[in-house]
Amino acid sequence: MERIDGLSRRNLLKRGALALASARLARFAKAQSVAASGPYGPTWDSLKQWRMPEWFRDAKFGIWAHWSAQCVPEQGDWYARRMYLQGDACYDYHVKTYGHPSKVGFKEIDYLWKAERWQPEQLMELYVKAGAKYFMALACHHDNLDCFDSTHHAWNTTRVGPGKDIVGTWEKIARAHGMRFGVSNHTSHAWHWLQAAYGYDPEGPMAGVRYDAYQLSAKDGKGTWWDGLDPQELYTGRNIVMPDGFKTIAEANAWHEKHDRVWDEAPPRANPEFVRTWYLRCKDLIDKYKPDLLYFDDRELPLGQAGLDITAYYYNASLSWHGGQQQAVVAAKEYSPEHAGATMLDIERGRAQGILEAPWQTDTCIGDWHYKRSLFEKHEYKTPDWVAKSLVDIVSKNGNLMLNIPVRGDGSIDEDEHKFLAEFGRWMSVHGEAIYGTRPFKIYGEGAPDVSGSHNFNESKARAFDSSDIRFTAKGDVLYAFVLGWPADGKVSIKSLAANNAMYPRKIGSVEMLGGHGRLEFRQEAEALTIKLPAKPQDRLAVYAFRIRA
């Protein structure tokens, strides 16, 4: 039987997608030919020509709005998948609040996302006051809804839900505030992540009844709000369908876990049309918004060759936008040593154990990635003190911190988040001098090791910092030393800056504490540099910096 790039004609006809597939294939071929124009080719060796732009090294701190329709229920992360897993708290919430997923699927949550209280100008002003130098918008999550004016995907926020170009609005406002702008693309996972929407309850009164994704096609939308849209494009089609016959939740969960492990890192050879469309959607995102930072939620690059193709296209496009100067940054997760240098290493909810030669980034969140409602008066967010100490540690090791402030489905942030941004911003207004535009010192600092194991997700394993932890940054002839706690005896001792120490062989001429107090008393002796502190700390956050000059 005749095949079109791995798909049988009969299969395409059944899906009513032959003409669409042919058109997309033509656009995909044209886009790849355009991507070839420039010094970067779609290979790892070619991409390793890339060098980190100075703007990113100077910026140090960014804020991320990890905001999509999954924030509407306010139940935290992965709602679009978890609502289809019987036994999960999100499933229970969905059945109680909206109805059974065989009748009310995630596409209805997309529809309910109205962003009616979204005031992006005011939010951006808060982010700037908090000290952010770059801002990143979520462009498309695993739930497969494009949060921008997408040419190649009808399920986007200009047609569904808010009726707005979310990314385009963020981009204009961020740039108007002098910030660099980034976008995050998580959609490479959608093709298998959403397969739970084709499943069924293994237990209970609805046992065996398939969920909405399995049942619906474009023709079923006639006369509804989604008339003209195809649910199969949203849910990605039946790629890895859960078989009939499971009788217990445990059996179904074991099947899902097995297939997640097998498919999470593999290009979807079962759905090459998804790969082609993904490429065109990502190219569209790049062309329309010209981001300074493109974040992939993937190990190395997404979807095999397609990830190499789009990265080469982006690097070449950035050169054309900026008169031959490379300003683009691609953030991706851990990679093989032979691929190091083609993109920037991004560490999710973790940090490096020492200075990394190449600049890198931590991405983390003060709470859940997607907004989670608190059952109590106060949310269990990371404190400004915790984030300040983490930022200092990360910057001392040649990294940046990108921090997510969760946004409610309606577009607002809660009172605890307002307080967090205000308090952290006050600290940054004093200590930013020792953060922005700095470079690592010869060593990152002093103190016992604070993290261990692999980079990703090690923040939960880290010990608490205290006054024995010192971190260094440098800018020109100035050395900055942070102490990550207030010493009980009112003295800071820094062994690395002892007299005649090879680490800092110069005689220290002055020590000042950022935020006032003038010059401090100090002694540079054979054992250590000892600094006498003021009578009491001037900030609620236990993170203090000293400006040290020879």
Automatic annotation (TrEMBL):
Coiled coil: none annotated. This is alpha-L-fucosidase. It comes from the Bacteria. One of its GO terms (cellular component) is lysosome. Residues 29-433 form the Glycoside hydrolase family 29 N-terminal domain. Keywords: Glycosidase, Hydrolase, Signal. Alpha-L-fucosidase is responsible for hydrolyzing the alpha-1,6-linked fucose joined to the reducing-end N-acetylglucosamine of the carbohydrate moieties of glycoproteins. The keyword Hydrolase applies. InterPro entries: FUC_metazoa-typ, Fucosidase_C, GH, Glyco_hydro_29, Glyco_hydro_29_N, Glyco_hydro_b, TAT_signal. Its EC number is 3.2.1.51. It holds the Pfam family Alpha_L_fucos. Residues 468-542 form the Alpha-L-fucosidase C-terminal domain. It comes from Terriglobus albidus. Belongs to the glycosyl hydrolase 29 family. The keyword Nucleotidyltransferase does not apply. One of its GO terms (biological process) is fucose metabolic process. PANTHER family: ALPHA-L-FUCOSIDASE, ALPHA-L-FUCOSIDASE-RELATED. One of its GO terms (molecular function) is alpha-L-fucosidase activity.
